[in-house]
Amino acid sequence: MIEFNEESVRGEVRAWLEANWDPHLSLVAWRNLLVDSGWGVPNWPKAWYGHDLPLALMPVVEEEFEQLGVVGVARKGSSSLAAATILAHGSDAQKEKFLRRILTGEDAWCQLFSEPGSGSDLAGATTRAVLNGDHYVINGQKVWNTSAHHADYGILLARTNVDVPKHQGLSYFLIPMRQPGVEVRPLRQMNGHASFNEVFFADAQVPREFMLENEGDGWKIATTTLMHERRYADSMRREVKPSERPERIYREEAEEAAIALEPYTWYPQRAGRVDLVIERAKATGRNTDPVVRQEIAKLMSMARCAEWTGRRARVAQEQGRQPGPEGSLGKLASSYVARAANRVHTMITGTDAMLTGDDSPMDGVIAEILVSTPAISIAGGTDEIQKNIISERVLKMPKETRIDTDVPFRDVLNNTG
Amino acid sequence: METDIGYDADVWRQMSRDLGLTAIHIPESYGGQGFGVSELAIATEEMGRALLCAPYFASTVMGATAIMKAGLEDQKQTLLPGIAAGEVIATLAFTEEHGRWEAEAVAMTATHEDGKYVLNGAKSFVLDGQSADLVVVVARRPDSKGTDGLSFFTVAGHAAGLERVLLKSTDPTRKLAKLTFSNVEAVLLGEEDNAAGPLRDTLDIAAICLANEMVGGAERLLEDAVAYANMRVQFGRPIASFQSLKHKAADMLMEVELAKSGAYYAAAAADEGDEDVSALASLAKASAADTYMQTAIHAVQIHGGIGFTWENDTHLWFKRAKSSEVFLGGSDYHRERLMQEWDV
């Protein structure tokens, strides 16, 4: 393909799909074909399974896939982040070894960044990596690791040097998860679900050639991963519903999706389920209480305004305008909406809010809202971090004076005592 | 600001004659520019930001809109060009001493005798009512109730029997008057007994414009507060470097942007003839009012002691926020209206 335009892209994709798409293939066999064609990840470089397609033309390809019900490459949250990071920072040998099996879904990955002692301050990670001959030895603990119990590999941020300032002593590893030195334990949340894990490393090993770039480059590479995480945060949760068609490939895809989406079943409740408020108020008769009506109106107004703010940001982006402050506010606004929704659901539900499961309204959905909304102001960057970012980047207020960035990491106070 | 008419005649001439702002949403066939509510809202947003003292809201937003919505063709031909040119200052006299904003609350009567309409009663909280050349009045048939029997009338500002008293208002940037009508002869505007619909449309557009005006004011307060915090040094550093202020400012920005989205969305809905426009007008008004007041409270707080002085201008926006909070109905009124519009 020499130059791209909507018509040429649409024509090429359609022609290739019509000649090759076969729902009776196995998932992996089909995806290998797709990866070789360059239409699985067309925005990737030609050298690595893509066509260098501009992002703006991606929707054209997606439309053609949808039209024929074609199954795409594997898009599991952490695996996609690993792929994007390896593509940006990996050596040819690393790309050769890992990328294809991520795209086919044969390998699943997890993210190993947060630690019990470093959440918002990710660069304060204390998990150690020490070189021993041809491999690094890993000791320490990670937390909030979605799907780590299914993972074949993990993207790991670990400290290789404590004698330099914190950001300079980190390195980025691709660690095999299925080995004796790695223990994965489910982490139960306050809402009863266990969507995440804790991962313990006791003399776990990573081959030296599985480090991305060089020692000390870990923080720089991690920012690539985090950038993709923010970008994909919404799309991962909006995962297309798997088809219920009978052919082999759809069945395999549905099984894969069931595993990948299992941790997210409570995410709608985490956001507060504003969509349920009016019907619940009518069903319970609480819509006649003027105080409740005021609170519903406040909540609905805030939720609608937040939605429209997101729309303003998207329109600005589509029109190629520099996004204004509206683009940085969505996450913070969603925390406030969820918290307000929790209050209003409680007002509407009354004493029944003491109950859960099938003893409680909507078979436990309301109860799940009431104990799930606290997650939204913590996960993916706390409200406090969001406010720092907004005040510094949007409002141009000065950074807080820091005492931990210019001294050797070993001299910085941390949680390990 | 510190005169009885409350504005600078030169500025008004520039706004109307040079910039055509008084004509924005008036159709071209009546001497206007033919733009929509969205464009009118942009103008009011900027006026709110600048804290403009002028009879713009009274004349263009309320007076002209009422005539556009209610007037007969020949009345629009007669009345609108003067307002569009800024030569006639109009206002809408709607609420009364009770300060209520629903049509049902109108008590002022219009009797129809010998082919003439005669108004008796009092209107209050009339924007620029003491200086307006043309007063659009809502009154009812003596035996009518609710939204029935309401009609629009026009009365000249200097009409016989009309007593106009400037009220002492907290917000020095908006002039309010009480208008007492004693057997004032009036001209029917539009159809008799049929004001409820046009009145609703007029108040919706006014609420949307006020919401945009408030958003402009809130944004200005936030910018000034952040600029002050960047400049003000305590404990050897700019106070803007303290997280307590940064987080407050981030919250203020979020509230302002959310309210802005509501105000813009409602303005667009009015232009598109959205059926939900009354609900959206109330949503926008309540959201912007709460945000403006909260932003003003934070802005004074961020300024500290100087923010509580007369010398510092923050109090002028604070007072505009307060008067805007209740003008056209408080947030509780609009939230209840939203719930009714949405059939909750």
The biggest sheet of chain B, with number of strands, parallel, antiparallel or mixed sense and barrel status, is: 7 strands, mixed
Tell me the total number of β-strands of chain B: 9
Main sheet summary of chain A: 4 strands, mixed
Strand content of chain B: 15-25%
Describe the structure.
- The complex is a heterodimer of chains A (417) and B (344).
- With 417 residues, chain A is an alpha+beta fold.
- Chain A has helices spanning 6-20, 27-37, 58-68, 77-89, 92-104, 218-237, 248-261, 267-270, 277-284, 290-318, 330-349, 365-370, 383-394, and strands spanning 109-112, 128-132, 135-143, 153-159, 170-176, 182-187, 196-207, 211-212.
- Chain A folds into 3 domains: 15-75 and 239-263, no CATH class; 83-237, Beta Barrel (Butyryl-CoA Dehydrogenase, subunit A, domain 2), CATH 2.40.110; 266-380.
- In chain A, the strands form 2 sheets. Chain A has a 4-stranded mixed beta sheet. A 4-stranded antiparallel beta sheet of chain A has the order 2-3-7-6, with no helix packed on it.
- The termini of chain A are far apart.
- In chain B, the strands form 2 sheets. In chain B, strands 1, 2, 3, 4, 5, 6 and 7 form a 7-stranded mixed beta sheet that branches.
- In chain B, β8 (233-234) and β9 (237-238) form a beta hairpin.
- The model of chain B has no long low-confidence stretch (mean pLDDT 97).
